[in-house]
Specification:
Layout (H helix, E strand, L loop, with lengths): L16 H27 L2 H5 L6 E5 L9 E4 H12 L4 E14 L2 E14 L2 E16 L2 E16 L3 H12 L1
Parallel strand pairs: 1-6
Antiparallel strand pairs: 1-2, 3-4, 4-5, 5-6
């Protein structure tokens, strides 16, 4: 009969409708926080970028991109490190795709494929790979407690990363 479903119609993959709705909202909120991450970097909005991260110490592993060690420390210090690298570029553009999230209460592992183009003059350095984020639910919403970038390919001139960093440092 139209409009009259069974109780099983209100269940998706063994979850009640409330559980399914919560899972969809969590995934949407995880998308929002990571989209805010990318847009904040590209727009050079460092105060907004800070809102992506949990309070206290965070972890950021960019060793697959050539960074010598995993960052562990206050989010403010990490945002400053990102600022020091990115502001030397003329433009950047970060994209995400193929997002998955394993949500367990107030914690989640968020994985998403990425590409980031870094432009300096006529030259570029583009990387592709994926982020694995360790997310926590806070009173302000989902936040990044730690994340790892796994680079699977690069295109262009890798030396631009150092050039942009030096350019940003000399402008201070």
């Amino acid at each position: 009969m139209c409009g009259q479903g069974s109780a099983s119609d209100d269940r998706v993959k063994g979850k009640s409708m409330d559980d399914t709705t919560r899972a969809l909202l969590d995934r949407a909120e995880l998308d929002e926080v990571m989209n805010r991450y990318a847009a904040s970097i590209d727009l050079r909005d460092w105060a907004r970028l800070r809102t992506v991260f949990a309070d206290g110490e965070i972890e950021a592993d960019f060793t697959s991109m050539g960074v010598k060690q995993v960052f562990r420390g206050p989010a403010e210090r990490w945002v400053d490190a990102v600022r020091q690298t990115i502001t030397g570029f003329d433009a950047t553009q970060h994209f995400f795709a193929n997002h998955t999230a394993e949500i367990d209460g107030d914690r989640a592992v968020d994985t998403r494929y990425m590409q980031a183009r870094h432009q300096l003059g006529a030259e570029h350095y583009t990387i592709g790979g994926y982020y694995t984020g360790h997310m926590v639910r806070t009173p302000q919403g989902w936040r990044v407690a730690g994340y790892k970038l796994t680079v699977t390919f690069g295109d262009g001139d890798r030396r631009l990363m150092g050039m942009a960093y030096r350019k940003a440092k000399s402008a201070v």
